[in-house]
Amino acid sequence: MRIGFLVLITSIYSISFCQEWRAFTEFEILSIQMGLSPSQMKVDPSTNDIWFTTGTRLHHLGEGVSEHITFTDHSITGLIDFIEVKNGKVWMITANSVSTGSLYSYNGSIVNHEVDLGVHAYTIEFDNEDTLWIGSDDTDGIGVHAFKDGGFVAYDDMNSPVIDLNIYQVLEDSYDRKWVVYESSPSIRLWDMNTGTSELYSYFLGHNLTQFIQINKVVQAPSGTIWIASSDGIFKFDEVDEDWISYNTANSNMPINEVTDIQFDQTGKMWALFKDTALAYSYNMTDWTVFDSNNSDLRFLGGFQGIRSFTIDTLNNVWTADDDYVYVFNSDGVEGWANTDELNETTKLNLYPNPANNEIIIEGVDISLSMEIYTVLGEQVQNHQLNSGKESFSLDALNVGTYIVVFKDHNGTIIDRRRFIQQ
Question: Model confidence at 232, in pLDDT bands (50, 70, 90)?
């Protein structure tokens, strides 16, 4: 079979990471092809590139290029439902109402891995050992596939604690345990493959989970704690009591109870997507900073046009999109918003190389500026005065890590922020 796809380079640009939401209107050229808001957005941790999917198309946003890939000549069957990205390769699950779910990978060319995932597949995630876990429906009694080194292992009720229910998600935690979520069910199973034991947590077994909730996402925080996003709030797993602590509008200032996704940024904030309502973050699960259609450019229209997904890259930028725009927010703690219709950097300043090796160079200074360098925890480690068009600065005294550079004019007004990594 002839495999075809079309790659369209839509724009070349330089991203200025700043602490505000920004609508990248270069993506207006994609509005005809997009038409839908992304069903899923993922970051490639090896390159920090952003990938998202709409219908039968992949969209790729990286430093210096944005592109969308349209698969032609029936090279894929059905719509792209879920993606996972690692080491420059995109893994895709497709499904429709008349064909079985299929697994594809894309790395410049499309590969069909020809595995029957049942009528529907619901999740695709890597574990700690680069095994790809795929949850699907109970066709032929198979609920989970594990894919590694080109081969598949199927787990069902005959060879594992995974019973014949639709598998919505499989997450491996830092203790090498699997958390298995059942679609349209208020239940989650903890499966320890090392010991062969498992534990089912459910309202019907007396656990602190709401009776009629739908579990939408399970994640592990940097601290190791397991969290659930659900149709009735957010739940945290207490390892000591082996039960769940609930957070909802009754005991937390959440805008609504239905949470479709939660993720953690590098400063420890939890970000939550509240269905058709808001994107918000919290440090303490009590107070929330809420971004909605009333105080930002973000559009929560419901259906397939409003925001349905988000992701956080390795530079702590939060990315989201609707059917017309892609937005980015730098999550280092400064709250600010911009209603821009142009993809312009805040200034013409250029900071390089990034990552840096004991030196950075600043170009494009046309007025007297001060430059302050901070750690991600807010500690100032350097302070310089800029007076010329190009200057270099030694970083020999800085430890390896990520740093924030703040540029101020003679009045002390912040005019730009940048980030760099000291290697």
Answer: very high
